[in-house]
Amino acid sequence: MSRRIYISQLGEESRRRAREARLPFEAASGGKEANKNDGSNYFDNEHQFQDDLMEIIQQGRAAIRKTYETALVPFHAAVSKPAQKAYLGTFLFATASLFLLGLSTIAYALFYFNFVPQVSVERIIHLQFGAEADEIREGHPHGTATLDASLTALQPYDVSLFLHLPRTPNNQAAGNFMLDLSLLSLAKPPSTAEKPLPESALKQRLAHSRRQAILTYASPIIDTASTLTGLPWYVLGWKTESEVVQVSMFDGVEFPKGWANVPQEVKLVVEADEKMQFYEVGVRIFAKFGGLRWIMYHHRILSYVIFTSMFWSSSMVSALVAWLVLSSYLVPNSTALKERQPASPQIKTEPSESEKYDPSMTEGLSDTSRTFPMFGRHLPLHFTGREETARRESDKRVKQEDEVIQSAGIQPLTAEADEYEGIETSGFRDSGIGTSLDEGQRARVQRRKKSSLFAGLPEED
Question: What is the C-alpha separation between 224 and 413, in angstroms, rounded?
Answer without folding.
Answer: 158
